[in-house]
Structure formats: C-alpha cells, structure tokens
Amino acid sequence: MKSAIEIRDLTKSYGDVRALDGVDLDVPEGSFFGLLGPNGAGKTTFINILVGLVRKSGGEARVFGHDVEADYREARDCIGLAPQEFNVDRFFPIREVLEHKAGYHGISQADAKERADEVLKRVGIHDKRDTRFDWLSGGMKRRFMLARALITDPDLLILDEPTAGVDVQLRHELWETITDLNDRGTTILLTTHYIEEAERLCDEVAILDSGRVLEVASPDELMDRGTDDIVVQLRDPPTAVPDFAADDDRVDAVELDGSRLVVTAQQGGLVAPDVVQALDRDAHEIVDLEISRTSLEEVFVEMTRQDEGRATMEVEQ
Amino acid sequence: MSLTSLDVTGFYALLRREVLRFVRRPRNTFVPPFITNVLYFSVFGVILGERIDQIAGVPYILFILPGLIVLGAVSNAFENASFSIFHGRWNRYIEEALTSPLSYTSMVGAYVLSSATRGILVGVLVALIGVFFTSVGVAQPFYLVAFMLVITLLFAGLGVIGGLWADDFDDLTMMNQFILRPLVFFGGVFYSLNEIPEAFRQASLLNPMIYMVNGVRYGFLGVTEVDPNLSLGVLSALTFVVVAVNVALFRRGYGLTD
C-alpha cells in the first residue's frame, strides 16, 4: 500500500533539546492513524513539520511522495489541518475565513462560497456563518477548526487533539464526521490524549515519547501485549490459592480475596477456559466470571514509563 | 489544477483579504489620516503659511502638499504591512496562509501590494484635502504616478520586514515613532533644502525621504531640488532589493516558523 506520510530519520532540535530524535514512520494511504504520546513527546512538532510551520533539522518527510520542503506547495495542497491551538482570522465572519482559506488553495471564489456553506452545514454551525470566531462558544470553535480543515477537501486530514475540551455529545459527533471521511478514502492522522478515541477510531497507532517512536501497531495488537484480569467469584472460599501459573506461562499472578479469585494473565480470553476447567476439576462452584481487558491507556502508560526508565539509565550511565 | 493557476487564484484571495481588512475599518485606516491632514493644512498651510514667503517659487501651502501626501502614503503603507503581518503572527492566523500551497513570492506580493494600495488611497485622500485648501495641478503625471507607486511599494516592503522582526506591539510603535517619523520630518516635507546650512543639507541627502518628497513634488509642481530620474532609479532599485529580501525572509521562515 502507498504511504500518505513517509518519514525517515526525522530530527528537530531546539538548541540542546531534541524534540524529534530520528523518527521513522509510514502512514498508509487511506488509514486512520493515531499518534499517541505524553505532553512534550513531539507530536505537534511532527505535525508542524509536515505543514511547514516548523523547519526540520534533519531527515526526510514526504506527504503523498512530495518532500515537505522541496515540494512544499504540492505537499501542503494535500493537507487539511485542525491544530490544537486556535489560529483563526479574527477580522472576518467565519464563512469568509473559510472562503479565504479555500482561495489560498486555488479554489475559485464561487466554488469557495459553496464549499464554505457545505462544510459549515456538515459540522453543524451554518447558522453562525456571519459570526466572527471570537463570538463562538468553545464547542463551536472546535467544530469550526474541523470545517476549516475540510474546506479544501484534503487527501490527508491532520487533527491535533480535535476533541480537547469538548463535551461527550460533540465528541461523538466529531468522531462520526471523521470516520465518515475516512470511509470515503481520506487519510486521517490523529493526535489525542483520549486513549479511548484512538482505541475506537484508529487502524494503527504510533506511540511517541521524548521525540522517538516507541511502537507502531494496531490498538488490538498493543492491548494483546498487556495483561487482562480474569475475575472469578466462587460460591465458597477455597482453602488455598490455585497454582495456575505453574501450568501456564501466560499467567502472571493469582490473588485470592475471600471467595474472589483474580487471575492476571496475558490473552485473558484464551486463559479463562483453562481457569474454569481447573476450578471445576477441584469442585469449586463458579458464581460469576468477568474478564477485564487491559486498556490501551494502560499499555501506553506502561510503555512510556519503561522508556522513561531507559532514558534515566542512559543518563546515569 | 496547475500550480500557476493555483497561485494566481491564491494570490488574489490573499490580496483581497488584505484589502478588505483595511477597507472595512475606515475608522482605523482612513479617518485618522483625514483628521491629521486637515490639521496639518489648517495650521502649517493656512495659519503659518500666510506668514511664510514663497518657497521654490510656490506658496508654502502648495510646497508642503506633496510632502504631506508622501508622509500619509508611506506611513500607511508601512503601518499596514507591519501591523497585518505582526498581528497575524501574534494571533497565529497567518498560519492559514503559511500552511497553504501559496508560493512565498505570492504571499509577499499580496502583502506588499495591498499595503501599497492603502498607501496610495491615503495619498489620494490627502490630495483631496489639499485641493479643499488650495488649488493644485499635476505638472508631471508620469513622475507623480511612478513615484507614488515606487515609494508605497518600498515602504510596504519595509513594513513586511518590520512585521516579521517585531516581537511585540511596542516594537511596531517604536519603528513608527523613532525611525519613520524622524525620516519623514527631516525629509524636506516642511522646508526647502536650500534654506538649511550646507552641512545639514549634505546630511539630508542621505535620507531617502528627500528623494521621495522631491519626486512627488516634481510630479505635482514641476519643481524639485534633486534629479527626479536619478531618484526614481535609485528608489526603484531599492524597492526591488527590499521585496527580494521579503521573499527570502518568508522562504527562510524568519519570524514565521520555529
């Protein structure tokens, strides 16, 4: 599959600080790709290099095959950006702001007017078309950021924390709009703090920390690497803790709290039948069973914590 | 769509945006120079002018009229470009253009041309106020148009540099008050070069404003204290250099990118 974004050994330094430290990444065309990382991981720097707001210190960055510096015009024409910070022209009503943005992308005035109405309707703020950005509510401002990114009908839509600070209902509406675009072939690059968002929307995620890519995988693959809890409620408390770990490498720990047994294991869904069988064999009556899957958030926290530990060790050495 | 046609449409869109920005705010853009120049003509032209002999063979009010036009035109061209770029950087909405496929030349072209347009409009406004106070003709229309175009483009280009360089609004005020205004006031707007001591006269010739004021004065009155062709040539070359610097700064991302 062709890449919408190709990154090779990308670096960005601010004095002694390495904001990006040799990033390699491929975002497949048509995919819904998530970029996760703690604050200061380099996500926004990465995005800003693609759109020309930050100049890279080294390496290569291409958008649909166009180098972001040598072929900056072609690269930028493919991209629609909804940045985290509001950067909207405050002098004009929002419909005109959209018309101007479309014009910068070579769209004629007549087409720009039509498109502006269309995207404002799509994000549900068409009735505010003659209002200036400053007078919109917080949620409407977020909707407008998406509308502005869509006005040029981009092949690559970059959303930097698109649902930051919005209520649950609006978040779901925005998800629906974005998913619909992705279904129609638009490549989406999403950064988010809401792990649920990445888990729910993304085909693939990259975990970025301290300017480095720690992992690229699907949310399911990542979650499979974490441990699940198999929580079994027994009729009567057993006299001893059953030793499941001895027979199964996937089992990490077994804890007994009265009649409640918690088995912590990788791939909990596959381990659970063995646990049930073993308990049956020992004549324990099971009242309830629940598998609590590890969340992407837990995997993410674990991975970034490990990376932090590695970095500390490197410094100490 | 080819990049060329994209650039033409994109350039026009940014130019239109920039012109609409000042046209829709006459209280900020046209009313202040209107009031200031009514005061200048009333005080310097009528009240003081009646007590001053002719200068270079013309009444004082007529002598200062071209200078006031230059003052209004260049300061507005400079202010428009520097404010628009700095305000866009400050509020980050300049990123709407920066992240677009517009070429750097088109971006600079739109900022410079729109700011020069504001300068010329203010120049026309000052001329109309002048006509209310005194009768004036145009002796050299070609030179008048050429000088007005060149000086407004030049100061718009300088305004672009100022807008990229400024770190806060105080820097914009500082440029206007401590650089632009002294240049203008020592640029022969209100006095003749022939009436100041030789040392000051020689020093004044280093001030580019002298050539601009005399060029526009030549256009209106047909009188000048410096060679208009030489002035036009030097100012045109300077304008070309400044606009080329603008494009280079945009390409480097000076003041625009991290």
Tertiary shape of chain A:
elongated
According to CATH, the homologous superfamily of the largest domain in chain A is P-loop containing nucleotide triphosphate hydrolases
Number of strands of chain B: 0
The span between the termini of chain A is: 42 Å
Q: What's the average pLDDT of chain A?
A: 88
Radius of gyration from the alpha-carbon trace of chain B, in angstroms: 19 Å
Order of H and E elements of chain A: EEEHEEHEHHHEHEHEEHEEEHEH
Give the total of domains of chain A. Answer: 2
Give the CATH class of the largest domain in chain A: Alpha Beta
User: What characterizes the major β-sheet of chain A?
Assistant: 6 strands, mixed
Label the overall shape of chain B.
elongated
Number of helices of chain A: 10
SS field, number of helical segments of chain B: 11
What would you call the structural class of chain B?
mainly alpha
Structural class of chain A: alpha/beta
Tell me the count of domains of chain B: 1
InterPro entries (chain B): ABC-2_transport_permease, ABC2_TM, ABC2_TM_bact-type, ABC_2_transport
GO cellular component, one term (chain B): ATP-binding cassette (ABC) transporter complex
GO molecular function, one term (chain B): ABC-type transporter activity
Domain ABC transmembrane type-2 (chain B): 24-253
Features:
heterodimer; A: 317 residues; Rossmann fold; Alpha-Beta Plaits; four-stranded antiparallel sheet; 10 helices; elongated; B: 258 residues; mainly alpha; 11 helices; transmembrane (chain B); transmembrane helix (chain B); ABC transporter (chain B); ABC-2_transport_permease (chain B)
